[in-house]
Amino acid sequence: MSPSQGPASAQQARARTERFHALYREHFDFVFRNLRRLGIAPASVDDALQDVFVVVLRRLDGFREGTHPKAWLFAIALRVAGNYRRAQTRRAPTASLAPDALEGSALGPFDQLSRSEAARVLDAFLGSLDDDKRAVFVLAELEQMTAPEIAQALAVNVNTVYSRLRAARIAFEQAVQVLRSRRESEGGHG
Questions:
Q1: What pLDDT is recorded for position 122?
Q2: Which pLDDT does position 134 carry in this prediction?
Q3: Which of 13, 15, 33, 185 has an alpha carbon 20 to 30 Å from 59's alpha carbon atom?
Q4: Is residue 12 part of a domain?
Q5: CB-CB neighbours of 2 under 10 Å
Q6: What's the DSSP call for residue 138?
Q7: In this structure, is residue 152 part of a structural domain?
Q8: pLDDT band at 163, cuts 50/70/90?
Q9: Does residue 81 fall inside a structural domain?
Q10: Which range has the top average pLDDT, 3-7, 43-47, 104-108?
Q11: Of the candidates 122, 149, 158, 153, which has an alpha carbon nearest to the alpha carbon of residue 39?
Q12: Domain count, the chain
């Protein structure tokens, strides 16, 4: 310990490290899921995840106690995902969501096929949304966050959250209708 570091600063450093590790343990899965939902290719998720937590560590002192941790982490993940998506479009196309990475493989073949199809459809739908609507839809529908929490995470007005969510839900309903129509027409010919 250097003369400029007293017991108080060592204690602060320990508390900061513990706080970081607690955030990491409690929200690792949340950040991982949402990086995938925000369009990060499976091959890049680990790197993006590391980048998110590097930013968390750097900005930990700026995290306010009244802030919802998921909102803060999602805002960071959103920025990191945007950077990765821009880099991905310059490289190769994104691979589809890997359902086996999301759940254990103790499922039967029919269940695995159903999950795989559902993941593919969800991935395609999320990919069709603009970034603003995608972020709101993911947080509201998939992460079950409230509109005020989403507004805080995205640094927008609550009414903007409701507007984007309404538009995303309409787009989702339209996508479901198209899928149903397609399945009905395929079923009618076979």
A1: 85
A2: 92
A3: 33
A4: yes
A5: 6
A6: I
A7: no
A8: very high
A9: yes
A10: 43-47
A11: 122
A12: 1
With vertex at residue 93, the alpha carbon angle to CA 90 and CA 97, rounded to the nearest 5 degrees, is 135
CA distance 31 to 177: 30
pLDDT for the residue 12: 85
Domain membership flag for residue 18: yes
Q: What percent of the chain has pLDDT over 90?
A: 42
- Tokens of residue 57, six digits: 């560590």
Sign of the dihedral defined by the CA atoms of residues 21, 27, 33, 34, in that order:
negative
- Per-residue pLDDT at 45 exceeds 70: yes
What CATH number should be reported for the domain holding residue 91?
A: 1.10.1740.10
Could you give the residue ranges of the DSSP H alpha helices within 60-157? 69-90, 99-102, 109-128, 131-137, 147-154
In the block, which residue shows the tokens 């079950």? 144
- List C-alpha distances in Å: 89 to 34, 46, 49, 85: 19, 18, 19, 6
Question: 4 is in which domain, residue-wise?
Answer: 1-95
Determine the Cα–Cα distance for residues 188 and 14; give it in Å rounded to an integer.
Answer: 65
Q: Is the distance from CB of 110 to CB of 186 less than 8 angstroms?
A: no
Residue 44 tokens read as: 């890049």
